[in-house]
Amino acid sequence: QVQLVESGGGLVQPGGSLNLSCVASGNLFRVSTMAWYRQAPGKQRELVATISGGSSENYADSVKGRFTISRDNAKNTVYLQMNRLKPEDTGVYYCNMMQGLTGLSYWGQGTQVTVSS
Fold it and tell me: What is the pLDDT of residue 101?
C-alpha cells in the first residue's frame, strides 16, 4: 500500500509563494506519474500539474508561468513551487500517484493553501 504525505501548505498573502512537498512510500515512485490537484470550497477537484516518470511536465492554464512541478526520485518526493499566488489559488492541495505498471492511483490526505490579505 502506497502512502503519500503532503506538507508545506499555509496562509500567504496575494503575490506570495509556497512550496508544497509530497513524500511517497514504496518502490514504484520513479516510474510513476505524479500530480497535484486542488479543491476549492464548493468546487470540484481540479488538476493543477503533472510530471511523468521521465519528468515531462504539464500545467493547468490557470497556473502556467506561476507554478512549477518537480520531482526528486532519490527522495521519493514531488514538489509544487507556487509563486505569485492569487486568492483563487486557495484550496486543499492533493498529491496523486498514477502507477502505469499496476493501473492503481493513490491520494494523499491534502494540505490547505489559503491566499488572503
Answer: 84
